[in-house]
């Protein structure tokens, strides 16, 4: 039976959803777990979106929510040739494919439920209550009729079971991998980051620098500098002209992993730590990318971020920890570089644990009958 991956967008395109479907699909193909990915193009429905948003605004005073509507999802599904609709489907989006539209089994592999998206990300403030209620109802139906619900974090799995009344044996936890081309990976034994930690280089990666809290990383850097150490924040993923101005910030802009893979990996490996302190985060792929390239990570225990850092490969701070607390921990490393080098050696030795290939192995075990909860 053909096994197909889908998302709201082209699963074969590296630019879809930060590259998660693309890298998942490539690893799945290498292991003969996935056969193909659906190509759907939401951009072809722009006119319908504008009309729908206008109609929704006139009715409720709110715009937004077209992507959760039955109208949108059915139009999107209609783009798929009938000959490609058979077989098993694995979807990253809990409302797609529409209920009853395919004959084969459907499973979900998600970072968030819609309940978390609406409440933790505040989407319920911009989407009308009617579409929220309808979407949550259809999501519950989709989960109850699915073969499996696989979550990227225990946080999401817990919400899925509690909010949607799902039996524990139907919900699995398998962390996602680093969005890197494994066929182009090089030996991690070459050290790029300076072992003496001077200046300390804190790495930041992300397009949405506000939600991912670059400002907090800069606050941490300021604390470190105030204690007499040299430090800089190396940031990539956003337009420097639209980012903040700060004397400790070095902005590298968007680094294209597809066409500038070596530049991207060199940027990551020139950092001493990867930093992610998002205000809301379903998972946190950038943490996995730093670890996959041999760099330890510091992060908050927010959403599913803690589970992106295997034990011993970085440090997870309590949600909302102050910049001074993070600086205290980093100062221990600065005072004893050997401690940092030992940490980096552990990360380097276990880096393959966070690859998509390892994720696929765990998914294959679930499809073979095991119940994955770690």
What does this structure look like?
The protein contains 12 helices and 12 strands. The chain has 374 residues and is an alpha/beta fold. It folds into 2 domains: 3-177 and 356-367, Rossmann fold, CATH 3.40.50; 182-354, Rossmann fold (3-Layer(aba) Sandwich), CATH 3.40.50. The strands form 2 sheets. It has a 6-stranded parallel beta sheet with strand order 2-1-3-4-5-6, with helices on both faces. Strands 9-8-7-10-11-12 form a 6-stranded parallel beta sheet, with helices on both faces. α7 crosses α10 (323-335) and α10 crosses α11. The model has no long low-confidence stretch (mean pLDDT 94).
Strand content: 5-15%
Task: Give the overall form.
Answer: globular
Question: End-to-end span in angstroms?
Answer: 28 Å
Task: Give the rounded overall mean pLDDT.
Answer: 94
Major β-sheet annotation:
6 strands, parallel
- Gyration radius (Cα, Å) is 21 Å
Tally of helical runs: 12
Kindly report the spatial arrangement of strands forming the biggest sheet.
Answer: 2-1-3-4-5-6
Approximate helicity band: 25-40%
Total discrete domains:
2
User: What string, H for helix and E for strand, traces the elements in order?
Assistant: EHEHHEEHHEHEEHEEHEHEEHHH
């Amino acid at each position: 039976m053909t096994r197909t991956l889908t998302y709201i967008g082209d699963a074969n395109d590296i630019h879809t959803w930060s590259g998660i479907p693309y890298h998942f699909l490539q690893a799945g193909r290498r292991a003969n777990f996935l056969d193909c990915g659906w190509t759907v193009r939401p951009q072809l429905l722009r006119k319908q979106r504008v009309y729908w948003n206008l109609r929704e605004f006139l009715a409720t005073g709110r715009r937004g929510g077209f992507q959760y509507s039955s109208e949108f999802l059915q139009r999107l599904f209609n783009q798929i040739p009938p000959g490609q609709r058979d077989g098993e489907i694995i979807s990253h989006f809990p409302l797609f494919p529409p209920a009853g539209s395919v004959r084969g089994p459907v499973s979900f592999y998600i970072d968030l439920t819609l309940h978390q998206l609406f409440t933790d990300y505040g989407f319920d403030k911009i989407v009308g209550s009617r579409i929220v209620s309808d979407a949550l109802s259809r999501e519950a139906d989709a989960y109850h009729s699915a073969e499996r619900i696989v979550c990227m974090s225990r946080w999401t799995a817990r919400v899925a079971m509690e909010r949607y009344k799902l039996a524990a044996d139907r919900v699995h936890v398998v962390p996602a991998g680093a969005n890197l081309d494994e066929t182009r990976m090089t030996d991690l034994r070459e050290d790029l980051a300076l072992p003496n930690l001077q200046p300390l280089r804190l790495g930041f990666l992300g397009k949405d620098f506000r939600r991912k809290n670059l400002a907090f990383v800069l606050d941490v850097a300021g604390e470190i500098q105030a204690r007499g150490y040299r430090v800089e924040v190396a940031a990539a993923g956003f337009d420097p002209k639209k980012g903040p101005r700060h004397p400790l910030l070095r902005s590298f802009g968007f680094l294209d992993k597809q066409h500038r893979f070596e530049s991207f990996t060199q940027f990551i490996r020139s950092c001493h730590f990867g930093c992610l302190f998002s205000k809301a985060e379903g998972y946190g792929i950038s943490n996995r990318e730093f670890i996959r390239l041999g760099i330890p990570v510091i992060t908050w225990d927010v959403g599913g971020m803690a589970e992106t850092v295997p034990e011993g490969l970085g440090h997870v701070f309590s949600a909302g920890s102050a910049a001074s607390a993070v600086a205290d921990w980093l100062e221990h490393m600065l005072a004893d570089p050997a401690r940092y080098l030992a940490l980096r050696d552990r990360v380097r030795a276990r880096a393959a644990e966070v690859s998509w290939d390892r994720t696929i192995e765990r998914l294959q075990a679930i499809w073979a009958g095991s119940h994955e909860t770690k």
